[in-house]
Amino acid sequence: MSTQPKVIVVTGAATGFGRLAATLLAEAGHIVYASMRGLEGRNAAAAQELRMLAAEKNLQLIPAELDVLSEASVKAAAAQVIAGQGRVDVVINNAAMLMIGVTEAFTPEQLLRVLDTNAVSWLRVNRAFLPQMRKQGDGLLLYIGSVTSRILSPFQGPYIASKAAGDALAETMHYENSRYGIDTVIVQPGAYTAGTNHFAGAQPAEDEAVSAQYDRINDLPPKLAARLDSLATPGARSDVGEVAEAVRDVIAIPKGERPFRIVIDPQHHGAAEVNEVATRMQRGFMERFGIADLMTVAP
User: Is the pTM higher than 0.90?
Assistant: First the structure.
């Protein structure tokens, strides 16, 4: 495994998993830009806490302004990183929001909002950093996806749609950039209901009149987190720290040797089995298409 420090950008690093991952990577010796929106506003306290931690532990942990919903903001952040370091080695697309409720009761505006945050933002971030990676002939795009893009659970319709869209974008962009030496890893976590704000901050469906029509099932969405917890494999870790540790470890693996997908799932949804079949079918298609080399990152 490589021990050379890398320049890493983590999106959505103000709280939860993003903050944990950014801190863990900095403690591993990397130069980490913990990006978030509202660096001088809504997330000023979070940014100051990271600065204090960096000073206390002598870490290269740098809070950076980056709003994944703004292309101008993302490009400005990329320019800051490249001007300061001369390169970017890893970009972690992590920013996400969760919605829980009966799908019909979510408004179209809510669906567009979650698609923008969980999928379109990945395109914005990649558009800002990929030109530098292609120039280097090296880089890693790492995505925090979800097992729900393979095996869905009801009452997360907009969220699952956005994660499936993001997953498709990530895989397609891998094929389109592999000849430029750019690696890809899609991390697919199961449900972690503690240690992150993901479930606690989930948005409900806004159309209450429609929700009321689902009298036969509308008691189920509030029970989703508890039921997912009950499905956890005996002995499985319940803290999201194991996902952050997996991210740290996969970044240390040399380019071209990293797994394309990593499933970390206390509930064992079955995503790994679906991935195995999908990969086999995808490879067969790419071979018939004459472009199977696009599935493997160039040296």
Answer: yes
